[in-house]
Amino acid sequence: MCLSILAVLCFILTSVSSNRVIELNEKFLDIYKRDGANPWLVMFYAPWCHHCKQLEPTYALVAQSIHNEDIGVLVSRVDCTKYTSVATHFSVRGFPTILYIHKNRIVEFLGDRTREDIIDFGKRLTGPPSRPIKNCKDVDNLRKKHQVIVVHFGPNPVWSNFSEVAESLHSSTWFYHSPSSCEKYSDNSIYILKSSSLGQEMDLKYENKSDNSLKEWVYSNKFPHFVKISHANLNQLLRSGKLLVIAIVEEVKSIGRLATQQHVDFKNMVENIAHSFDDQDKFVFCWTSFVDLINSIAMHTISPIPNLIIINSTTLEYFRVDGEPNSQNILNLLKGISDGDINLRPSGGDGYHHRLIRWAYDGYSSLTNMYKGNPILTLLVFGLPMIFLSIILYSSCCSDVFEAREEDDEDEEDSTHNKQD
Ligand SMILES: *[C@@H]1O[C@H](CO)[C@@H](O)[C@H](O)[C@H]1NC(C)=O
Ligand SMILES: *[C@@H]1O[C@H](CO)[C@@H](O)[C@H](O)[C@H]1NC(C)=O
Ligand SMILES: *[C@@H]1O[C@H](CO)[C@@H](O)[C@H](O)[C@H]1NC(C)=O
Fold first, then answer.
1. How remote is the CA of residue 140 from the centroid of ligand 1, in Å?
2. Which segments constitute the Thioredoxin domain (predicted)?
3. Domains of the chain, with CATH numbers?
4. Which residues contact 308 (CB under 8 A, 6 or more apart)?
5. Alpha helix (H) ranges present in 232-346?
6. How far is the CA of 243 from the centre of ligand 3 (A)?
7. Closest Cα to atom 7, ligand 1: which residue?
8. Per-residue pLDDT reduced to its tens digit, 206-221
9. Residue numbers of the chain with a pLDDT score lower than 70
């Protein structure tokens, strides 16, 4: 078995770099379906692609961890500029794309491109969509291991809708089922169990009512407790139909840490509120350092940072904290919204004129950002055309005046002619 895998590897790989990422070529197309013993994680890249280069060290760590943990997934990559047939075969459109490939099964990785998320993805897909829990004690361990798990408790057999949902969300969410009932949880029920980085736990129980499909429920509640907004989950959050309570903080991207202790404290404060404020049906608590994104939704520059905004994900209307964003004021706002206080009127939205304003604001803010980055270039790029434009406008106005004068002259001439006649 080992030997055959080795033979396969020797056959298809062109070179193994110093890390454990296998470099593939077009022979992969002949091999991946035939030799289906091990699943593949394949990164499709192009040498010129900036995001691919950024992902490289992370991906090398993924390969190392998966090797160390003996998960049995072959971590590899393929240069799509050299082996275009491979990219075409898997209909790869953007770089980098990460696919899980096992025989005929192909699943795209759509999460945040961090080491943990990619490893999680590989591990999850190598097992069945829902894994059995043998002992109720294991539930606590699983909660420690994963931020979010969806669990079906017995003693009734697994509900077919549960299997269906587990299958469809296999790439993003961990599903488990316990054949027996467990003390802490109701019999024959489905829970979403979350744990936070601060060690808090939250349980959500599915109410099996006809108006609430299981799939929608899992879909809009599967976000980790106090989730970080990323490019990967933003669209899902906006489709959750909930109110997004967003802590806006500043992050030093290069080291992946928050800018100052003040930002760390603010984030922790909001996370604690997230835990104590018990209205999970209506709110999702999150945090972000994409200030531009929030400014664009709010259509103005939010300051000071750290700050907090509550966005209605369906309408893009938003609420801001009245006064200083401290815990008392934040709680008051949350309670007000939760109780349906009519004095609280949201701003913004996603109507036709809001889109127009947002469009103008985005244009304006990219211009000012560009000016801050490189004032001379900005002046050249936008200033020169403006000067030309004003000259053209000016001359066209003045030419009107000239024409008008000429006409006057003609009139006069005409009249003089008439006189002469
Ligand atoms: C939900 O309700 C349906 C129909 O009443 C039932 O068949 C199913 O077993 C229930 N599922 C759970 C998990 O309670
Ligand atoms: C269960 O699945 C069936 C068929 O897919 C669907 O019609 C029904 O609405 C689902 N029920 C729930 C509560 O999700
Ligand atoms: C979002 O706004 C709409 C329209 O005002 C409202 O009907 C809906 O309930 C709001 N969503 C939430 C989660 O409050």
1. 25
2. 2-127
3. 8-125 (3.40.30.10), 129-222 (3.40.30.10), 226-350 (3.40.30.10)
4. 245, 246, 247, 248, 270, 320, 321, 325, 330
5. 234-238, 261-276, 291-298, 327-338
6. 8
7. 159
8. 998 877 799 999 998 9
9. 1-18, 397-421
